[in-house]
Amino acid sequence: MLLFFYFYLSPLSSLQNEYRSVNGNIKSIKIKYITPSYKKAKIVFEKINSEYEIKMEGKRIVEEAEKKNGEEIVNYRKYSYITTPQGISAYCSQKIDEERKSEEKSIEYLCERYIKKISEIKIEKIKDGTAFKTYFLIKKEKSDDVLIYDMDDNFMEKEIYNYGEQGELKEKITYNDLGDMIYRVSYESPSKLLRYIKTYNSNNNIIDIMKEERRIDGTLRKKIFTKYTFSGNLDSRVETFYNERGIKEEEKYYDSNEMIYKNYVFEYETDEKGNWIKEFKYLKKEGNKKFLETIVVREIVY
């Protein structure tokens, strides 16, 4: 079965998961979103709109922080992982003792029922050290269950990841604390060069579809992200094109009438390891003109 990826993604923003993608192992990465301005007819990069930083241990995120205007921290998370049977048993014993004293039964019930099936516990803490969320990973033969509890140890959500015969992810289903489905995501691969990621709401109506196209060598060539209205009609579409190294080159935005209303192209500066450290986003204008709209700077520590 594939490595259970959920524990290593950022909960602060799905956008960050794309921008923190690098080749090789890293200790940390700082991402700055900058709006260019002009001084004395020269372009300057002084205005930092937001900043995002993560620290890693191997493949795991252990700390992340998000700032606005380059100063104020608006989001902060710190993570710890319990992966050994002894550590999981000790954590569960502590929680059982705490809940018996307070007459709570949520995690006590989970630990007593699944203690031998819990393969990992992830604890998400906020800035003052309070456990904000706790994730319990329960591995089964062809699926993984993740049970999520809030800061008061109340059950919040359950996520089920279903896998195919080769260990490939086929489906993710999220349920609320009452057992009602919130949404479902299906992963369909008609061939090695094509994959569809389809998201459905609680009524099993399609919300969006991500189509991924790859080259013969397996590198990502194109993504098409399509959003739908509640009634199932087209809402919008974004086409993203990538070069042979998997770096984004162009984005086209379409409205509900399938008319293009924005077209962006991207240029990059890279480091000695081939990872980009500056991304320049240009809005294409008529007559092959382009206007620099935003810059993303990445400071990578290997």
Q: How would you explain this protein's 3D organization?
A:
This protein is mainly β. It is built from three helices and 18 strands. The chain has an 18-stranded antiparallel barrel. α2 runs antiparallel to α3. The longest helix is centred in the first third of the chain and has 18 residues, at 85-102. The two termini are 29 Å apart.
Features:
57% strand; 302 residues; 18-stranded antiparallel beta barrel; 3 helices; mainly beta
Number of helices: 3
> Structural class given helices, strands, pairing?
mainly beta
Amount of beta strand: over 45%
- Percent range for helical residues? 10-25%
Please provide a brief summary of the model.
The chain is mainly beta. The chain is built from 3 helices and 18 strands.
Produce the secondary structure layout.
Elements: H1 14-19, E1 28-39, E2 42-57, E3 60-68, E4 72-82, H2 85-102, H3 106-114, E5 118-125, E6 131-139, E7 143-149, E8 155-163, E9 169-175, E10 181-191, E11 194-200, E12 206-214, E13 220-228, E14 234-242, E15 248-254, E16 260-270, E17 276-284, E18 290-301
Antiparallel strand pairs: 1-2, 1-18, 2-3, 3-4, 4-5, 5-6, 6-7, 7-8, 8-9, 9-10, 10-11, 11-12, 12-13, 13-14, 14-15, 15-16, 16-17, 17-18
